[in-house]
Specification:
Strand content: 25-35%
Shape: globular
Number of domains: 1
Length: about 110
């Protein structure tokens, strides 16, 4: 079940027909106690009072997971995934992750 700002983002994205798919968890508090998140079939939506609610999915989510989620150097997402020349990108408090559509590789940058 989604609630509040996470629910609003989920509905904005298109609900169960969106890129994140259907919910597979209820809303949870992040380990640091700062944020909230929901896990979906194909991604997650994270929220904090500072960053708002943003979706993370696919290879970018995998790279963020590998870097320690919100507890790692990237921190919380500050944007939804968006198109850039040659791929997709998501911004985080401590940098960004870009996915290359040609190679499938992800890179972490400023």
């Amino acid at each position: 079940m989604t609630m509040g700002a996470i629910d609003a983002k989920y509905r904005e994205l298109g609900g169960c027909r969106s890129v994140v798919g259907g919910a597979v968890s209820g809303e949870r508090t992040t380990p640091d106690g700062v944020g909230r998140y929901n896990v979906f079939e194909n991604g997650s939506i994270y929220w904090t009072p500072e960053t708002g609610a943003h979706e993370v999915h696919g290879a970018i989510r995998d790279r963020w997971r590998d870097s320690g989620w919100e507890g790692g150097p990237l921190g919380y997402p500050t944007s939804d995934e968006y198109a850039v020349p040659g791929g997709r990108k998501s911004d985080f408090q401590g940098g960004s992750i870009t996915w290359n559509a040609s190679t499938g590789a992800t890179t972490v940058g400023p």
